[in-house]
Amino acid sequence: MTPALADRRPEPTLERLLADLVPPPRFADARLATYEPDPAHPSQAEAKERISAFAAQIGGEKKGGLLDRLGLGGKRRAEAARGIYLDGGFGVGKTHLLTSLFHAVPGKRVYGTFVEYTNLVGALGFQKALDQLAQSQLVCIDEFELDDPGDTLLMTRLIRELSDQGVAVAATSNTLPEALGEGRFAAQDFLREIQSMAERFEVMRIDGEDYRRRDGAVNIRALPQAAVAAHARTGSGATLDSFDELLAHLARVHPSRYGAMIDDVTCAHLTGVRRVDSHNDALRLVVLVDRLYDRKVPVLVSAADGGDVLEHLYSEDLLGSGYRKKYYRSLSRLASLATDGAALVEAGGDPS
Fold it and tell me: Which GO terms describe its biological process (predicted)?
């Protein structure tokens, strides 16, 4: 019987959670030398040059000793460290540049998505997470997005305290810092909190086209259910889940464990995929898709209606909400993974 993701209940250790704070396999080989700016969009070349200079600046700075990091070395650093913020649409190379920065900086540094950091704080507690991250020269935050006011206040506080301790912070997002929260929360004190965080960053805008060609109307390729189930039996490392059972399982597993949940998975198979109407289900699915995409795991899907294209994974209400950019990114990534999965079937390929 083919194993299911819904049967997995990982319990990663603290060491595992920290060890996962590195660039994902999809971007393991990304370097500044391999980033090729589009001549039609000069901002890409400008961002590459600025990231190179930022890396050199960090590499030339020396942090304090152990007593300083423990807060026992007397006066704290008077001036907060500055950060860099890469803003732009999907698929323009922001993650490639952020990963390149990570690899260009010597010494200790960490890399994770916004969600991975909030999950880390949830798992360890704020102070313990801060103590761990403050040992780094550089903290890279990919896909800075707002799920709720609590997460944003948590992350802005984390960034301020890391910056106060001399830790450089680099982040990417699809929204300028000053606009974070617009269309989601209207509280003035909340917006002031975001603005104080934005002052810590130099903003670099990167223009260009999404290489995955996401235009807001992504069609996710679907296959007959029998073909999906049959392919799941063809190789080691494959998993097979019904969509509804998987959604129910994701609600019982902390998102910080989704990465461990897909350890050693070579191909994921989903049957009965249908439209999602709940933000809770959708946001958890987004995290899972991100982890699958990071690890380049092909996905084979069959649609609940039996069609060959899954046109409406997220409801119109969800796509019109404040989380729409998160959902559109998920559609783009899942469409790419489903294309990879369908190609395996056509080629008669073993998922392992």
Answer: cell division
